[in-house]
Amino acid sequence: MTPIPESPALLMIVSGPAGSGKTTLCDRMLIETPALQRIVTATTRPPREGEADGVDYHFLSRDAFERGIESGDFFEWARVHDQLYGCLKSEVGNKLSRRIDLLLNIDVQGAETFRRAVSGEPALRGRVISVFVTPETTDVIRERLETRGQDSAEEIERRIATARGEIARWVDYDYCIVSRDRESDFLAISSILRAEKLSNRRRVSSA
User: Fold this and answer.
1) N or C: which end of the chain has fewer CB within 10 A?
2) Are 66 and 58 in contact (CB under 8 A)?
3) Res 207 pLDDT > 60
């Protein structure tokens, strides 16, 4: 009997507009899915209170970030709200080769660039899943941003304007979760990962 191949390690991309709840959802996935690890992205924005370098982000100076771009150190990078964000290749390759599933919480612009960048990478072929998380309306986003209390009124208006364009991109993803409540959202995204890990299509492509 021919042995059934193991499912390959997967990279789950999670995107959505600011205030969609994607970060809370990703944090819970990491807590309740021990085999899943977060990809720590790099940014030029300053740390917020309580954030740690190498844990929340790799906090880089603009000069260091731009040198990394020139050296080809990033799978993707993007300018968001006047700051640079990017996914370092060093954060991905060695972990997938060790069969570690990865989670990438990334904005819509970065996700598009990332998908293009990895499309020609043999090591990532058949391993990327993309999930879009969004509330039903931008009114919900506004309420969440105001409740969070981290942004000025001007910043909230800018994020709302950005969100309108981002929500229209849901069709670019493998899955779309219309956010209801934390439990429903978590059940949806955890079910997606479990189903993809059992996919015969992925087993065959990795064999």
Assistant:
1) N
2) no
3) no
> Among residues 41, 22, 57, which one has the least CA distance to residue 114?
41
pLDDT digits (tens, 9 = 90+) for 67-99: 999 999 998 888 888 899 988 888 888 788 888
Q: What is the pTM of this model?
A: 0.79
Which residue do the tokens 């998380």 mark? 133
Among the four given CATH numbers 3.20.20.140, 3.40.50.970, 3.30.470.20, 3.40.50.300, the one describing domain 11-39+99-206: 3.40.50.300
CATH topology of domain 40-91: Guanylate Kinase phosphate binding domain (3.30.63)
Give tens-digit pLDDT for 15-44.
998 778 899 999 999 999 988 999 888 999
C-alpha pair distances (Å), 194 with each of 13, 160, 186: 15, 33, 12
Tokens 């069969």, located at residue:
99
pLDDT, residue 37, reads: 94
